[in-house]
């Protein structure tokens, strides 16, 4: 299958993208490995982590052949987009609409998850060529706001990010979202004592709640 479609299919089948935003590359890599062991097949490594591009390069080379989509997050411009694509990123994520970033990704046929909040931003992002639209931030409006946006825009693949947990993921899917982005619920499960096996357990628990919510 065409690579861009395969990546989108992986994200769609996963129903959840793991957002790895941590303090350094070493912890990010350990968390990513533990989450992959727990079943995650779509992960974004945010560029806010020093050395993130090398983490993307290593994870992508190691797990890409096994069907894991390794993306880059917090890709704010076309320069970062190109660098991440060259490092092997399977998809790019931004918290905002940046048409030049989306254009660069589409030039190389790499899918994008583009941040939006208002109906205007959602539609502009779709028109700019984004594949998936990330509802961000979610803390203020929450699930009721997502329902209001989705009422006229149910045809758009919307993925909320921020505050998604095993407790509320069912409600998010019931609101009509196409998938969810989850971060700290899984990526910080190793704290405070450094037991990374808890990340694997949190990943399994979260993905099983996603599967149940989508039945
Ligand atoms: O960039 C962070 C994402 O919005 C994830 O948020 P979260 O840690 O609340 O899941």
Automatic annotation (TrEMBL):
Q: Which Pfam families match?
A: Aldolase
Pathway recorded for this protein: Carbohydrate acid metabolism
Report the domain of life of the source organism: Bacteria
What name appears for this protein in its UniProt entry? 2-dehydro-3-deoxy-6-phosphogalactonate aldolase
InterPro entries with a match to the protein in the record: Aldlse_KDPG_KHG, Aldolase_TIM
Q: Which family does it belong to?
A: Belongs to the KHG/KDPG aldolase family.
Its subunit composition reads: Homotrimer.
